[in-house]
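Weekly modeling sync, notes
Attendees: AB, CL, MP (scribe)

Item 1: holo prediction request
CL wants a bound-state model with zinc ion before deciding which constructs to order. AB pointed out that an apo prediction alone won't tell us much about the pocket. Agreed to run with the ligand included and paste results into these notes for async review.

Input as submitted:
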Amino acid sequence: MPEGDTIFRTARALGRALGGRPITGFRSTYPKLTRANDDVPFAGQTVDRVESRGKWLLMHFSGGATLATHMLMNGSWHIYRRGERWQQPGVHMRILIETSEYIAVGFRVPVAEMHTARSLARDARIPQPAKDVLSSAFDGAAAVRRVLAHGDEEIGDVLLHQEVLAGVGNVFKSEVCFVTGVHPFCKVSALTADQVQALIAAARKLVGANVLEDSGDEIVTYGGRKRRTTHASDPGASLWVYSRTGEPCRRCGALIRRRVQGPDTRVTFWCPCCQPMPDGCNVDG
Ligand SMILES: [Zn+2]
């Protein structure tokens, strides 16, 4: 599943490609979207702004409507010049937005909804900017309070709750715990507010570092190897712990561990030495 950094970069690219030029065509395989287009045609409108909110991508049209999409596992947005060959079969096209220069195609996008400003503000599934680790409107103090409210849960799980902290996915979860020295299976109630604050700061820093202009598609948290030389078949090469089971910790040499975590059984990686379990947190690890 794409993490917040991927959606952020996609939103930025879509905004640059579509922004400022009148829309010349709109198509979708979703009846609700085609009905919206029948009611108020998108052709002639412009895309005012494209933003990411955690794992949601919001496209704001000049007519006041907002298209909210979520990629889940397999969805993606592509940008093509007119006449350019698509990289996925047309049968996977769900949404198509055309301008005089570029065509944006949403392939296999499983969730697509039209919103008004009001429905967007009320929809609890779509994070407000204050919860998004990549937003300049992020509210750190409120985020600390939201994390601490999940005292009975393991921190590795809580970091994935998009309503607590939007934009952190499974790779960043393990990486954030490592750089903060926190055991991912530690209960939130065993952490201090300072530790939670440090975890949140690390999340903002690591996810933020992956949306810089020269960031590639691959997540990088460990700078010991340059991104450009990283081999695609070794996803852990530019990471501290994720996908590095049994390999030596980059800081202390202990062997990295892996275990599934939480109700969704997501894989979690950590260093048993750099991330000790605090007293009172009685989990084998
Ligand atoms: Zn270590």
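Recorded for review: Residues 225-230 have pLDDT under 50 and may be disordered.
Action items: CL to compare against the apo run; MP to circulate these notes.
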